[in-house]
Design brief:
five-stranded antiparallel β-sheet, six-stranded mixed β-sheet, Immunoglobulin-like, alpha/beta, single chain, 12 helices, Rossmann fold
Amino acid sequence: MKKIISLFYSNLFLSSRLFAALSGCVVLFVLSFFFPWLGVIPELVFWVLLLLTIIDLLLLYRTANAIFAKRQAPERLSNSDENELGIFIESKYSFTISVGIIDEIPFQFQKRDVWFKTILKSGEHKLISYMLRPTKRGEYEFGNIRVFVRSPLGILSRRFNFEQAEILPVYPSFLQMRKYELMAISNRLNEIGIKKIRRLGHSMEFEQVKTYVPGDDFRTINWKSTARQGNLMTNFYTDEKSQQVYCVIDKSRAMKMPFDSLSLLDYAINASLVLANIALLKEDKAGLITVAEKIGAVIPADRRHTQINKILEVLYKEKTRYLETNMEALYTTICHVIKQRSLVVFFTNYESMNAMQRQLPFLKRIAKLHLLLVVFFENTELKQLSEQPANNVEEIYIKTIAEKFAFDKKLIVKELAKHGIQSILTSPQNLTINTINRYLELKARQKI
């Protein structure tokens, strides 16, 4: 009995309308001392208010399970993307009610204003949708759903609690991966910034002999088949397949730096996932290596349908380390795992020439065995500082330092090119598009 009474009081709230009405009653009682002609009006108003409060209480509590609410969420969330969630709510009251809903979202979002208001008629149900954008991978714990109901009188408010605690994993950006996948299937990659690369020559991957049509390269005419068929026949070539593409992700402290609330490691992980999926769509083999002070995950290149799920599960668990990258261990692993010439895309970050020079001997060794593409990041904040006008001596000093760091990045690109190493210097926001563009370019130019 005590528990029921306690539950009753804990879920009953007084509205601002009730306090305003009580304040009005107090004012009337005070005025009745100075204006006797008010008579019994203050008492009458008070008793009417008390009666309305009792009626409101009965309206709210006469139905036990008058509200049903449930959170509708996907099985997993996509990192750095807007994920849609919803709250399904249904009223079983016999009158129209005002509803306020609180969804206890995970603390990682640091939001304390997830409050939704709506009006439900008798027997009506609604789906209230909202968006969440996580910026870290891992497990996100959702709490309960709290629903506050008011009758048309609006004097009291009743709270309904729906225990729906659940844990949702946040994976690397699979929504972005699907977007690029759909664009690639429909040949619309150019709509999102992927360039069309002019093919130099043609591939040596023979597919079939077909009838010549105007516009075919006359150099591909198969004269033997032409003589047999009596019509011009031409050889048809297709893109070379089953080439190996390895994404090597640096997990050292250099990748801890945040941009737009997302670390460089997460940008690299999202880009690697998209690149691996595009490579599989192009019928190439995709693989993965992660490295910090020691080798992390190693997934040999493959083109099976389950390969992208393997890569996704591994990338979900990767975290930034706080030591330098062990390039010797990386070189040894590449020699041991990758047996044929492949495209090795190395996602890392250099802030100075000295940092790059320490790794250069191993990069040169890898470049002798494979086509190495080093991807590192522009410091967009320093770039903005270098572009702003300087108004005093301190700002001149800051701008000069920012320009020096930005210039060092360009020198790193030239130094890598001098040793025959491909590189991409990109802002974190454009990382995925620039990486895919370079992969398609290298494939079109038959450099893999």
